[in-house]
Amino acid sequence: MDAIRGTSAPQFQAVYHPQSGIATLDAAVYSAPVGPIELVELLRNGLSMAIVPAQPLAQIVAAPGVGSDVIIRLLDPIRRLERDPAPDLRPRAATLRASSLIAIPEGLATDWYLPNGQPRVLHLHIGATLRETMHDEAGRGLERQLKPRIGWDVSSANAMFERMERLGAATGPLDRLELQGLGLAATAAILRASGVLATRNPSQAMTPARLRRVRAYVEENLGSEVCLDEMAGCVGLSTSHFARAFRAETGISPYAFVVQARVKRAKDQLLNSRRSLAEIAIDCGFATQSHMTETFRRVTGLPPARWLRVQGRDAEGEA
Known about the structure:
The protein is of the alpha+beta class. It has helices at about 25, 130-135, 155-165, 175-195, 210-220, 230-235, 240-250, 255-270, 275-285, 290-300, 305-310; strands at about 15, 30, 40-45, 45-50, 60-65, 70-75, 100-105, 110-115, 120-125, 150. The strands form two sheets. It has a six-stranded antiparallel sheet.
C-alpha cells in the first residue's frame, strides 16, 4: 500500500478480536496503534455492532472484504479523504458529515487514506443469512446484493442509530434486548432504502396461540435475560419476521412488551411482599435497583417508593 502523500511508509498493526465474530475488525490493519473497540453480538444469526473510537494517528486503514455487509455510521465527520476507498466506493465530496452512512457489501475490500486520522464510527455487520432471510420473508424483493454507497443518508434509520450509539456496549438485560430490536429495525430500514428489500407487507403470522406462548415465555424468564431471538424461537419464527408480526399484532415492540412485563411484576411485588427494592429489582430482571427505579419512573411517572405511597402503602409493603 502506498503511503499518504508526504509521509513515509507506516508500520501496520493488525487488530484481532477473535471473540467478536466481526471479521472486518478482526482482520483490519491500521497504520498506528488503536484504542479499545466496543463489540456487541446482537443476534446469533449474524447481526453485530461495534463502536470504534477515533484513531487520530491511524491515517491508513486496510479492511479486507468479509462475509457480511458492513454499514458504517460516522459519529464524527471525515474531514478529508485522500482517495476513493475502493473502485466502486466513490464519494461525491472529500469531506463527509457526521451521521452519514457508508455501505460496504459483502466481499468488497477497502483501503482508507485519512490525513486527519480515522473518526469515531459505529459498525453494523449484517450477516448473509439474516439478509437472505429478511429478503425472502418480504415476499417480493428487488436486489439481493447491497450496493456500495458513501456519504449516504437514510433518515428512517437515524433515530435507531442514535439510540444504539447511546446504549453502546450496555450489558443490562433490557438494554441488550433494546439493542437487538434497534439493530434489526435499522437493518430493515437500510435494506429497504438500498433496494435490497421491498416495502414490507403487514404480517398476519402472530396468531393468538403464538402470542400466548410468547407471553408465557416472557413471564417464565423475567428474572433472567430475555433475548429477541429466543422470543422468536419459542413460536418458530425468524427474528426479523417475529419482530414485524409482534408489533403488527400488539402495537408495541417486543422490547416495550418486556419492559411492561417487568414493571408489572415489580408492582405486584411492591404491593404483595415485604422484599427490599434491591431484591425486587433482581427478581424482575433489572440489572440494578437504580435501573429498576429509572425504568419504573419512565413507565409510571413515579419512582417505586412514591408509587407505593400513592397506593396507600409504605416502602416496606405495609398499609
